[in-house]
Amino acid sequence: MKRVYMTTGLAFVLITIVFFAASATNFGTQASAQSPKPMKAKAFKHACTQAKAGYAACRALQSTTSVATPASQTQAGVTPNAQAPGASAPYSPANLAAAYKLPTSANVAQTVAIVDAYDDPNAESDLATYRSHFGLPACTSSNGCFRKVNQSGGTSYPAANSGWAGEISLDVDMVSAICNHCKILLVEANSSSLSDLGTAVNTAVSLGANEISNSYGGSQSSSDTSSCNAYYNHPGVAVTASSGDGGPAVESPADCPHVVAVGGTSLNSNGSETAWNTSSTEGAGGGCSSYITRPGWENNTLTGCAQRAVADVSAVADPNTGVYVYDSYQSGGWLQYGGTSASSPIIASVYALAGGVSGDAASIPWNKRANGCLFSVGGKSYAYQTGLGSPNGTGCF
């Protein structure tokens, strides 16, 4: 069974319970082991303001009030083969590992880069609070696990921004949640212009990132092909990008042919998962690109798109089935977050758990999808907002 949510203003309201039909495709399915636990409705706000042409907005949705401090946890004793998260939202690292059948202590030699705009002065200290609270190994600049640079690779950081600081906290916390032995490289762009953010992506590659998460997006334009080639074409590096939070529509850089476009789901406490689609203006992005040619590995029989289709894969993004984040910079400490800003670093970190990539990362789920290594979201083989599905282990990454 699953729960369906819709909003009135900013409040999420439970409206019905319907039966969940499992997919009969070759993909894995998420079975309903028990009824979802009741969740209190919360109000959420966009962490970043709407972007003008040539700029990007971060795709984080933040609870407007703090949440109770989560119970202290450790990774010991976690059973990652369960399909239910094991608790109701907001979800912890152990809950996410359980939902997506991920190993909880894989000691992989991978560096996951986070690219965002502006500075979060508290990024390292907030990261330490999150990791310590959930029993994750320390990740600091002194032990070589955490590094923060500007878009040129230096340490003269851009101006601080509270909205993007929340985005940064969400991103580094999700990398920590999924791949707790990965190194984290935070690259802060001078501004939210797509050119500055793209420059930061290239810097992340030059500094040795194996995976790069981009939790932001801007409007499609006729210049997308050139910017995709200039900033987001890095064979051997898994570059992910959020598909958007405004409902079905295509954004850049998620539309880039070598980027893994990450959509969003609603993840219930029993493991059932549906497309995150709160309303016509709030939910995961997705659709057919107006400018980007369809990559040869993308199956247009499934997508129905003559051009590039978005998304490729997905993970939890609905803020009402969201995740714990710790953010202290002009914010309330423990908060509940969602948006495809959550799903992008989750998927980047699943690529890291899989040991990195060679060649084109975006093609891998498409080429391996018949192996049962994806959960079909809502029983569908493909949908714009959720792509081919969510992780069922690391086999499709």
UniProtKB/TrEMBL annotation:
GO terms for biological process: proteolysis. Residues 90-397 form the Peptidase S53 domain. InterPro entries: Peptidase_S8/S53_dom_sf, Sedolisin_dom, Tripeptidyl-peptidase_I. Transmembrane segments: none annotated. SUPFAM superfamilies: Subtilisin-like. Keywords: Signal. Residues 1-24 form the signal peptide. PROSITE patterns: SEDOLISIN. GO terms for molecular function: serine-type endopeptidase activity; tripeptidyl-peptidase activity. PANTHER family: PROTEASE S8 TRIPEPTIDYL PEPTIDASE I CLN2 (PTHR14218), TRIPEPTIDYL-PEPTIDASE 1 (PTHR14218:SF15). This is Peptidase S8. It comes from Dictyobacter vulcani.
